[in-house]
Amino acid sequence: MKSKKLRIAVVGLGEQMCDNLFVPISISQYTKIVAICDVSQKALDAFEHKFGVFQQYTSYEVMIATENIDVIVISSYPDIHYAVAKHAMQNGIHVFIEKPPTRNLEQLNDLVGIAAAQGIKTGVGMNFSYTDSHEILKNVICNADFGALSFVLIEHISSKPKEPLWNLDSTIESFLLAQLIHPLDYILSIGGKYKTLDVHFSKNDYPLVLQIMIEFENGIIGCLKSGSYYPRFRHQVEMISDQGNTVRIDDLANIEITTGNNAIAPFDLKAKQCVTVYTPSPLKSGYSKAGYETELNIFFEHVLHDTPYEHALTDMIKVYEAMEDIQKGMDYKSSRLKTEVEHSTLL
């Protein structure tokens, strides 16, 4: 007996959908693509030239009214994410939204309320948490022989944004939603609730240098270094236990474990070896390495079988609350610096 396939519609045919999301959706054992939607007819035609013929729509309202859809996958601007997801959920359709799901916490809370009232399953595209390397890291730090986690360092840097994105008000707001959301989500998922959050940052919006020190209620100390000053994307994670065991991830792929205890490694170690490096197979698909294929399949399983999915809209509330705290901290320090400069000028 064949299992049911979810009828999928996609909204927003930009770079993220074309390069990273659509192929994993289309090859999933759980899905059947029924419609594509974009406000640009040129984008629709280019998409079909690349991927094949699908039912086209330039209006998501018309598409939802016309098609029998189980899940809509949305990849556009935050305000569009909010509008499309709200309309879809009000019509009983499950939604998967590429990050950032909304522009702000107010919009996010609105969607969370609608999803709860309508019994809708939701997912947010946070692919870094679904890479093979991060799955191995989770297994290592959950191993009793690793010891209690005491320190987490995440470096997440790139060369953008250089200016406001998605019709947002500022480059800083764009940076928080486009870049910082990934490592912030990850460090909060590891540390839990925090007691203090202290922000240090450069004076200029671009290139931006940002460092956040976090003290968690469970005693873990977190350090998040981010910015838009590096010529390429770079993502590194280092976690240290109270026994001095260390695990590192370099650019979502390579893993280094430093330990004298072979029991904590999830792959073969030579006797008495203190440092080991795991490198993924070059035959592994890019969609799998980057986490897109895994996160989408886990979400589709969640819709079909009510299995767990760790990045529903409600799970993003803590991330948006932390981003608000970071923005407030930056605004306060900027205001204080401006006051000090004005005072020194008067003197």
Automatic annotation (TrEMBL):
The UniProt GO MF terms for this protein read:
nucleotide binding
Q: Which residues form the Gfo/Idh/MocA-like oxidoreductase N-terminal domain?
A: 6-125
Protein name, please? Gfo/Idh/MocA-like oxidoreductase N-terminal domain-containing protein
Kindly name one Pfam family recorded for this protein: GFO_IDH_MocA
Q: Which domain of life is it from?
A: Bacteria
* Organism per entry: Flavobacterium kingsejongi
Q: Check the record and name the InterPro entries matching this protein.
A: Gfo/Idh/MocA-like_OxRdtase_N (IPR000683), Gfo/Idh/MocA_Oxidoreductases (IPR051450), NAD(P)-bd_dom_sf (IPR036291)
